[in-house]
Amino acid sequence: MIGRFLEDFAAGQTFRSGRVRIDTERIKTFGAEFDPQPFHLDEEAARDTIFRGLAASGWHTAAVTMRLLVESDLKPAGGIVGAGADEFRWPRPVRPGDELRIESEVLEVRPSRSRPDQGLIKVRTTTLNQNDEAVQVIIANLVVPRRPTPGGEEAAASEHVDPAGERVPSKYRRTTAAGPTNDH
């Protein structure tokens, strides 16, 4: 599937994902490799921390969220390509046995002023546990290609910007004193 182009998105659209269960072993494995702190590695040591028990790394939650986003029905053409985040927070920890899913809402759609072949969509993606409690909220800007126009590349190649800054078809090219002549 090619996916959705910029013109296929509108503010207010929502998209959902399937679910993934987080188990103790995955929490510890991710923590050991990427965020080796006691509250991600050992149930006993985690009891004496701010989390009061084993909790997944926020970056583990972010990675699971990315997987759910890719598998969701959002599907921008060209893939999930981030241009940055306006907000990123973890309101509560992910625990062993939690079942996560995402809900994404398009907040804004805007064509690029400098790149006419693409634009940005601003999307709030909320990762929820099995109790519908938010465990992660991110507002991200995604780069999305615009729908190609028939002959788009060819048409663009047959245009140029004249000295006055106007886009004109090449066959109607204006010349200046320093421009091309008919001398061969």
List keywords for this structure.
elongated; Thiol Ester Dehydrase, Chain A; 2 domains; 5 helices; two-stranded antiparallel ribbon; six-stranded antiparallel β-sheet; alpha+beta; 184 residues
Tally the structural domains: 2
* Count of discrete alpha- or pi-helical segments spanning 4 or more residues: 5
- The number of strands is 8
- Average pLDDT confidence is 88
Biggest beta sheet attributes: 6 strands, antiparallel
CATH level 1 class label of the largest domain: Alpha Beta
Q: State the end-to-end distance.
A: 50 Å
Helix content: 10-25%
What is the radius of gyration? 24 Å
Say which CATH homologous superfamily of the largest domain is assigned.
Hotdog Thioesterase
Helices and strands, in order, run as: EEHHHHEEEEHEE
- Unreliable runs, pLDDT <50, ≥5 residues? 154-158, 170-184
Shape: elongated
Structural class: alpha+beta
CATH topology group of the largest domain: Thiol Ester Dehydrase, Chain A
Amount of beta strand: 25-35%
Task: Quickly give the CATH architecture of the largest domain.
Answer: Roll
Could you characterize the architecture of this molecule?
The structure is a single chain. The protein is of the alpha+beta class. It has two domains: 6-145, Roll (Thiol Ester Dehydrase, Chain A), CATH 3.10.129; 149-176, no CATH class. 21% of the residues lie in helices and 30% in strands. It contains five helices and eight strands. The chain has helices at residues 24-34, 38-41, 43-46, 58-71, 152-157, and strands at 14-16, 20-21, 82-89, 99-111, 118-128, 134-145, 159-161, 167-169. The strands form two sheets. Strands 1, 2, 3, 4, 5 and 6 form a six-stranded antiparallel β-sheet that branches. A two-stranded antiparallel ribbon has the order 7-8. 23% of the residues are buried.
